[in-house]
Amino acid sequence: MTKNSRISYFVPRPSSFILCPCDVFVTLLCYGTPYESDAFCCKEKNNVYEPFIVPLSLGLLGEHCPDGLGIAGAIGFAPQSCAYGHGRYLFHPLLARRPLRLGRFAGCSQCGYPPSTPVRINEFITVEYVGSGELVDDEPEVPENEEPSGNPNPTEPPVDETEHGAVEFSVFNSRTKFEFKVTMQEEMLDDIYNCHATTWRTESPFETTFTFLPLISDGGEAAGEPSADTRGWTNGIDNRVQIANPNIWPTRTIAQFRWANSTTHNSNCSGTLIGPRHIITAAHCINSQGTNNWLTQRITPAKNGFGTALAQEPYGNSVVSLNPAPGTEVWYFTPWQWRIPSTGDGSEWQWDWGLLVIPDRLGDEASWMGYFAATSTYLNSVSKWNRGYAQCNTARGNSPVPCNNGRMYADLSPCNIGSFSNAGADGWNRRVSIGCDLSGGHSGSPIYFWHKKPNNTFVPVVSLIVNTEACSLNCAANNNFPNGAVRLTPANMGTISWLRETFP
User: Where does 28-177 show beta strands of DSSP type E?
Assistant: First the structure.
């Protein structure tokens, strides 16, 4: 079965739902559990629900828990979800009658004390504690790197023929401050992505027809005359405009990042909702490269100027604070290669993308964009767009002019690609040079396009993440592609789908 094959299957639903106490549940999941062959149910004893083990060889959990009281069904079955119980357990036809137990990952990573040895969540996921991280209020770096150079038209294998191998990620929990190295095998990631893709969970909930694209792709006010420093500006000219109303589709899914306690509402970075509480951004916006310092942020989709009233923050915000209250923790994810200290050759920027799981379901109202791994040929054939929250008063002086704190800016010209570089073993290039005007604050913002579906409707999909600006001091007339972005590859698709499945 290929990654594009349609999947259909039936999962029985327990007759009622009771969840074991969290402390018992988490401790049991973390240590000393025969995870390969057993699952957990709750049974009543003296009015107390206690966990006990049921061999999975007997069949699906919901069929054999007494009176149907299964942990797997504690939250219910979600239509168009690949998870039985919203990610607690995942039953998959390619893994007949064998759960992936994705919920065990969250339980193990939230325990009050870290495991002393690597923990196998299942045969596809290994979690290794690497140390305590630090939450800091530092401002993200505004990276400058030489323009990525490479092949303008590389040949890359189709998604369903790509083999990427195991994926390694650094994972940080803002409540426990524990940092883990997580290794996930290709088979599982491909299966989950396949399931999500065939149930449309990799797409935006909204679609449109081509007739309406011009109405929702443009808009704004002129940014003004260039300043002295033109780094990040194609051909040394800033063509960005201020978006007058970001609270339209799909720009309302793009979020401003600012310090959690900022009084100026100036922007640090940008990010995009790709799920109800799932944010994709640049790794340097959430972690200082090569360190265990994880950055606090206040994340606000469709932010529109100074203030916190409905007009400026129509969907509210989610705060990544230094000391999160119970239930407000945030999960950080970056490629493990980003966590390794730089060697000074600039190779770290190919890994400069990351994910956040925030406590607030901002996407339930703002909605979200889809995510898509497009081959170089496909990317070069479509018009790509960037919108982001430019930082005002940057040290480099290349902010848009005039610049207003908390406002969204956009180069209304398509964000064309100059070349592809940093080819991986899977045959996909991880970085590109891009020709849209940028400055500090645009880091982490999406480069998206309108993907045409078989029913001739279009959905916006994120395919690249802005991460660097170039030109040393000033961009000149021959700097057509001065900036850099990180691509989403087939391996990234599986990781994002796994994240959404594990943290619904």
Answer: 38-45, 48-55, 119-122, 125-132, 134-136, 167-173
Domain residue limits at 416? 210-502
Question: Considering the domain boundaries, does residue 83 fall inside one?
Answer: no
Q: What is the pLDDT of residues 245-289, one digit of tens each?
A: 999 999 999 999 998 888 899 999 999 999 999 999 999 999 999
Q: How far is CA 243 from CA 254, 312, 435, 449, 483, in A?
A: 12, 13, 19, 18, 21
**Running DSSP on this structure, what letter comes out for residue 28?**
H
Does any domain span residue 333?
Answer: yes
Do the domain assignments include residue 44?
no
75 within some domain: no
The answer to whether the beta carbons of residues 368 and 273 sit under 8 Å apart is yes
- Domain containing 440 — which CATH number? 2.40.10.10
Q: Are strands 48-55 and 38-45 parallel, antiparallel or unpaired?
A: antiparallel
**Cβ contact 504:497 at 8 Å:** no
Instruction: Output DSSP code: residue 140.
Output: P
Tell me the C-alpha distance between 50 and 40, whole Å: 10
Please tell me the total count of domains within the chain. Answer: 1
Q: Give, as one character, the DSSP assignment of residue 178.
A: E
pTM for this one?
0.80
CA–CA dist 281, 353 (Å, integer): 6
Question: What single DSSP character describes residue 74?
Answer: S
